[in-house]
Design brief:
Strand content: under 5%
Strand order of the largest sheet: 1-2
Shape: globular
Number of helices: 16
Distance between the termini: 53 Å
CATH superfamily of the largest domain: Farnesyl Diphosphate Synthase
Largest sheet: 2 strands, antiparallel
CATH topology of the largest domain: Farnesyl Diphosphate Synthase
CATH architecture of the largest domain: Orthogonal Bundle
Number of domains: 2
Number of strands: 2
Length: 352
Amino acid sequence: MGADKIIRPEWIPEAYRGMEAPARNKKQMRELHELQDIISDAVNKLNFPEYPAQLYEPISYILALGGKRMRPALLLMACDLFGGNVEAAIPPALAIEVFHNFTLMHDDIMDNAPLRRGSVTVHNKWNQNVGILSGDVMLVQGYKLMMQVPDHLLRPILDIFNITAIGVCEGQQLDMEFEELTNVSISEYLNMIKLKTAVVLGGALKIGALIGGADAKDADLLSDFGVNLGIAFQLQDDILDVYGDPEKFGKQVGGDIISNKKTFLLLKSLELADSSQSAELNSWLNAKRFNSTEKVQAVTAIYDSLSIRQLAEEAMQTYADKAFEALDAINLPENHKQYLRNFADGLLVREH
């Protein structure tokens, strides 16, 4: 079999079978929304076996719930940046999306979550055993999709996928452990969000870059860009949970405070608080019954007195700067780097 020959199983959309690597003539970069639309269309065309129905229907169900398709779109974006054939990168991009939804299916079981994107979770619609087994098959289907990359890239790309998948599982485990621990350091928290959230962005970008023809150095730099951007994004999420406009942010403001979630803001407050502030914080953290509005206001007041928002924004900016340093070192035309800068700005400049 030729190095760039791509063989696709029967459940890959017909439109994406038999594609060959393109000539390296660069066209206009595609907009992010175009890449997201390509992924959504490809997800809709995925064909899974009909039997046994309870194994495969939940997969189609969770994939149909939508989402921003940001992770697979980043893979396509990276391929496009280096002059690759975006269409030929669709199967590995789908692999990232299938894998991501597999983690969501199992996370929902662990969290006993009733809803996912406003719809009933798989384990509630069917049952927990179905959710576990369907998730297992999703992981395997993700690998089947990822194996559709050119032969000469198969081993390095599967290595990246493996490292990414293990990192996400490690991050989820740490996140669950942090719920029970009383002492979690800032560095432990940053490592957790790196593993749980940011490594997928880095992995997707790295795989897309290699498919697009990037060398190993540039692919690593693009991965560093994605990982640091992912950490900055999560830190901003922590900030917006407390200080965001719920109408623009799309979430309940103060939700992390109500649930005692160990975010950068809470951990930094516990680190800096004096004895009276520490006592008040711990009294809210240990309270079994409380008025949610009162708790959010009281904890936010402590954050304000310690300038926690400013410290969190400085930490976020530190990781954003690291992302842009990696980007500056990549061997890409300046207009392509600017495309990534604009993407990062769009991701990090959200309404407060």
